[in-house]
Amino acid sequence: MSEIDPRSDIREYIKKYGVLKNQRNVSEEICQKYKGKLPQALIQFWREYGIGTWLDGKFQFCIPSDYADIVDILFEGDPDIRPQRTHIVGFSAFGDLLIWNEDLQTCEVNLPLSTMKIYQWNYNELGSKNYYLKGPIAALSFDHRYNFPTDNKNYTSLFKETLDVIGEITLGECYGFFPALALGGVPALKHIKKVDAKVHFNMLAQMGPLRIRRLNEQEEIEFFRYAGAEQ
């Protein structure tokens, strides 16, 4: 087996975040299915640790084929982001999708806010060409990451408040806002329910095209274009 590049190796975060909870083993058949489609570092992580939840459910790894329908909805007809080369490999408690695209590498989608960022499309003064999954995973420890603020002064974030009041989610679950933020909902505890992630993501994906945003030369976030078929 080839050596894993330390720049992409995510196994070190087992020490930082702890073992996966609600753990499920990943078969060698699935590992082989994604060979050449996903980073070897992720496949090796699957082999050793499987999939499961991290940080009290703040983030969880998943098998891409389980969420392929959401990818089809989001990117059907897109000239650059081809669904068959786009794989959801994990997601946050509130529905931020961590995606690996075979051409564009690491991407992130915020489903509640209908936004997307593709690191390769940001202005890059240094000319970097590799955008590893390790970057977003390393940032999980920051309280604001994959999170919303709360007005409750007893908590530092909406995730911590939700975790305390509603309880921890398990594999395949997420916290959903009702009504959805795209329909005028508010990111507050009283509007949150624990739901099936696949069902909820499918609903959110149908609420309109994602707005792809990128970092420009002035280091400002700007709208680039909509995802999917040309508008």
From TrEMBL:
Protein name: DUF1851 domain-containing protein
Pfam families to which the protein is assigned, alphabetical: GAD-like (PF08887), T6SS_Tdi1_C (PF08906)
UniProtKB keywords: Plasmid
InterPro entries: GAD-rel, T6SS_Tdi1_C
Domain GAD-related: 12-111
Domain T6SS immunity protein Tdi1 C-terminal: 153-207
